[in-house]
Amino acid sequence: MNRIATAWSRLALLVLCSAAPLPALAIFQNGGFETNAYTAWTLGGGTNPGLAGAPPFNSASVQITPGAAGPASIVGPGSTDPLAPTIQLPRVGQFTAKLNDEGGGALVTTLRQTDTVSQADIDPADGLPHIRFAFAPVLDDPNHSPAEQPYFYVVVKNLADNSVLFEQFAYSGQANVQFLQGAGSWKYLEFQNVDAVLPASALGQQVELTVIASDCSLGGHGGYVYVDGFGSAQVPPDNSGGPQGAPHAVPALGPAGLGLLGVLLALTALSMRRWHA
After folding, report:
1. Architecture of 25-248 per CATH?
2. What is the pTM of this model?
3. Residue 190's closest CA among 124, 129, 138?
4. Confidence band of 238 (pLDDT split at 50, 70, 90)
5. What is the mean pLDDT of residues 88-105?
6. In the 3-class helix/strand/coil scheme, how is the chain assigned residue by residue?
7. All residues at 6 or more sequence positions from 92 whose CB lies less than 8 Å from its CB, including other chains
8. Which residues are CB-neighbours of 96 under 8 A, at least 6 positions away?
9. At what angle do helices 3-17 and 255-276 cross, to 10 degrees?
10. Nearest to 91 by CA among 230, 232, 251
11. CA-to-CA distance for 18 and 13, rounded, in angstroms?
12. φ/ψ (deg, to 5) at 67
């Protein structure tokens, strides 16, 4: 192939290589914690005085004595959890958030972010906005009374009317939750993928996401939660290296890019014919 044809071919390849889709604007900033920090999130906490009332517990049962933000860290590539050996870390991309820790102390860690539902959050499959993420609780099970056990709580609320769009609560060892047996007395769930479908009326409204991870109220036993993949895109089914915070995707060209590529390929073919003539 002559140098002209080679040049056109290289230019066509450059167009293809630059065609990978840019990250779409969608709900929750730094939803995959890919800054290796809690940028755009609010951490809080305090201590756990015990859950109010009796089972079944709900959001009104959660009590937190105000105090300093609880423990929070970011885990990266190569991380493992010896207390929950089948949890794959990191869950999405290169980093996953870990709220609270193994240490006990009756500590509570909270994570919050408020954002506005936009057109970018609409799933073309059903025409409705979605909020998606994954969480995995790891809780010691000291066999205290239910109100004293370590627990986790996840809730998504529409602030326009305070309606609950999604919530999940469980204390360690709760009978109707299929916890896996971890090391020693620890119980855990592998990552649970959440797909909260919002009504069309949620467009333009603010939603607030809250995650709470708590030690036991007596102070001797820990509990923590991994979270990742907050946004409106599908959470990948595994950690096999797909695009961060999005499902595996094939790079796509827009109309202008397709037109330019067609011109480049045609010119390449013309140059090759002239060279062979």
Report:
1. Sandwich (2.60)
2. 0.78
3. 138
4. low
5. 97
6. CCHHHHHHHHHHHHHHHCCCCCCCCCCCCCCCCCCCCCCCCEEEEEECCCCCCCCCCCHHHCCCEECCCCCEEEECCCCCCCCCCCCCCCCCCCCEEEECCCCCCCEEEEEEEEEECCHHHEECCCCEEEEEEEEEEEEECCCCCHHHCCEEEEEEEECCCCEEEEEEEEECCCCCCCCEECCCCEEECCCEEEEEECCHHHCCCEEEEEEEEECCCCCCCCEEEEEEEEECCCCCCCCCCCCCCCCCCCCCCCHHHHHHHHHHHHHHHHHHHHHHC
7. 32, 134, 228, 229, 235, 236, 239, 244, 245
8. 33, 74, 75, 79, 89, 90, 226, 227, 228
9. 160
10. 230
11. 9
12. -175, -165
Give which of 103, 97, 110 is closest to 140, Cα–Cα: 103
The label of the residue with tokens 């099970």 reads 141
Give the residues across from 137 on adjacent strands.
225
Cis peptide bond upstream of 137, omega within 30 = no
- Whether the per-residue pLDDT at 187 is higher than 80: the answer is yes
The amino acid present at 199, given as its one-letter code, is P
Q: How far is CA 81 from the centre of its chain?
A: 18
Tokens 């057109």 belong to residue: 119
Q: Which residues pair with 45 in a beta bridge?
A: 109
Q: Which tokens sit at 158?
A: 């529409």
The domain spans of the chain are 25-248
CA distances from 184 to 103, 174, 175, 188, 246 (A): 15, 17, 18, 12, 35
Contacts of residue 30, Cβ cutoff 8 Å, sequence gap at least 6: 37, 38, 39, 40, 41
Residue range 156-162: average pLDDT?
96
Going 237 to 243 to 244 to 245, the CA torsion angle's sign is: negative
Cis before 251 (ω within 30): no
pLDDT tens column, 245-255: 333 222 333 33
CA dihedral 87, 90, 91, 93 (to 10 degrees): -170
